[in-house]
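Please, is this right?
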Amino acid sequence: MSSDNANIKNDFGLPYDAKDIGRYINKLRRERKLSMYQLALDAGVTRAVLMRIEKGEREPRLNTLFKIIDGLEMRPAEFFMVFN
């Protein structure tokens, strides 16, 4: 099994990968007119972590993803609905 993010979709049969999640977080953040700094502060994560997640360079851990979702003032079900 490849550790390359580009193959995660194929390796696990998922409709999304880290880049898709990062782009979606970035889209939601911009729609809410939040700076990266403000979302990081609201989510309780560092700006560097958020930046790497948004760029798709890092797969967010589940607890970090939930913090970001909370910082976006969403419920997890709302966030993941787009990936169905």
Residues 29 and 37 are 11 Å apart (CA to CA). The longest helix spans residues 18-31. The chain has a mean pLDDT of 88. The chain has one domain: 16-81.
